[in-house]
Write a structure and sequence with these properties.
- The chain is built from 11 helices and 14 strands.
- The chain is an alpha/beta fold.
- It has 2 domains: about 60 residues, 2-Layer Sandwich (Alpha-Beta Plaits); about 270 residues, TIM Barrel (Alpha-Beta Barrel).
- An 8-stranded parallel barrel has the order 7-8-9-10-11-12-13-14, surrounded by 7 helices.
- The longest helix has 17 residues.
Length: about 350
């Protein structure tokens, strides 16, 4: 259930409600809205009874939450959450573009990628240092050295970073190097890892599982938030269907649906969703039209030489051209890529 406090309720009354909830077997989580504080009472115990909480001083109303997820739910927080990442922000009208190679391969490769994506207007540099590969014989990533190279290239270019963690060890290492911890599709239901990410004190990008329903995905986000981490970004990256001509099937309907169900920002990864660089630009544009708060796009200075996912990586020129188109799409859809000029002339000309 959710206890909505009156606007301006003093801290003592909020604490008193928190103590009452704890005594009833709930964990109280404070959610700071624009004008008031809401206390989400979560835990194993579910009850339709408001337990007399509405009679406590400072309480405006008590609302039962019927969904299995609570902290991620719109019912608990009506306003969109914005996740701040260094100077970048995901959500709140900003279209955050995260781009870079699938895997960190070398200082030279990453330096080139970082300069190219920064120049094109991206806010965050991606690069995997721990790669969860289908085959044990495929390139598994440079691990800590990869994280070091990522942090170095991003600092030089003036970008934030995102990189995947696959277990407790990689998480412990990565949290000292990266700005956003990525939980990949294969680990979306690794509940211990989700809890550990919830305790890491860093923003988390949570990818949708290979065959996960939207509800399972939101429940995975609930695991992270239940540990006190509110900085969760959801990432739709395609789901497994019968279709084999694309790597996955991009479920774009998930974007507006998740935004109805949850206050969390949603980004789309058209690279892993399609597995084909020819489809990345059209699906990236469609994602913006569908309401995505950002994009995660694979870009490699020389896709033909990539150690991982070259067939779906854009080269720097293709990425720069896409970013120009995306800014026009974003502006038309009431959002904006902060790192790019608004291209007023072209837009005015297009509007006629
Ligand atoms: C990735 O982004 O590097 C990745 C492995 O993606 P996914 O978990 O979506 O397959
Ligand atoms: Mn990849």
């Amino acid at each position: 259930m959710v206890v909505v406090m009156e606007p301006g309720a003093p801290p003592e009354t909020i604490q008193a409600v928190g103590r009452r909830l704890a005594a009833q077997g709930f964990q109280p989580h404070l959610i700071h809205g624009v004008s008031r504080i809401v206390i989400a009472a979560v835990g194993e115990r579910r009850t339709a009874d408001t337990l007399g909480l509405e009679n406590l001083p400072g309480v405006e109303k008590v609302v039962a939450i019927m969904k299995p997820y609570q902290l991620v739910s719109r019912e608990v927080k009506g306003e969109d959450s914005v996740v701040k990442v260094g100077r970048a922000a995901v959500g709140g009208g900003n279209l955050a573009v995260m781009a870079g190679p699938c895997a960190v391969e070398s200082r030279e490769q990453l330096g080139k990628a970082a300069r190219a994506v920064k120049q094109a207007g991206a806010a965050v540099l991606r690069g995997g240092a721990f790669k969860p590969r289908t085959s044990p014989y495929s390139f598994q990533g440079l691990e800590e050295k990869g994280l070091r190279l990522l942090a170095e290239a991003a600092a030089r270019a003036g970008l934030a970073t995102v990189s995947e963690v696959i277990d407790q060890n990689s998480l412990d290492l990565a949290k000292d190097y990266v700005d956003i911890l990525q939980i990949g599709a294969r680990n979306m239901q690794n509940f211990r890892l989700l809890r550990a990410a919830g305790r890491a004190g860093k923003p988390v990008l949570l990818k949708r599982g290979l065959s996960a329903t939207i509800e399972e995905w939101l429940m995975a986000a609930e695991y992270i938030m239940s540990e006190g981490n509110e900085q969760v970004i959801l990432c739709e990256r395609g789901i497994r269907t019968f279709e084999r001509l694309t790597r996955n099937t991009l479920d774009l309907s998930a974007v507006p649906l998740v935004k109805i169900l949850s206050h969390l920002p949603v980004v789309v990864d058209p690279s892993h969703a399609t597995g084909d660089r020819r489809l990345v630009a059209p699906m990236a544009k469609a994602a913006v039209a569908a309401g995505a708060d950002g994009l995660l796009i694979e870009v490699h200075p020389e896709p033909a030489q990539a150690l991982c996912d070259g067939q779906q990586s854009l080269d720097p020129e293709q990425f720069a051209a896409l970013m120009q188109d995306l800014q026009a799409m974003a502006l038309a859809a009431g959002r904006k890529i902060a790192g790019l000029p608004e291209g007023g002339k072209e837009i005015a000309a297009a509007a006629g």
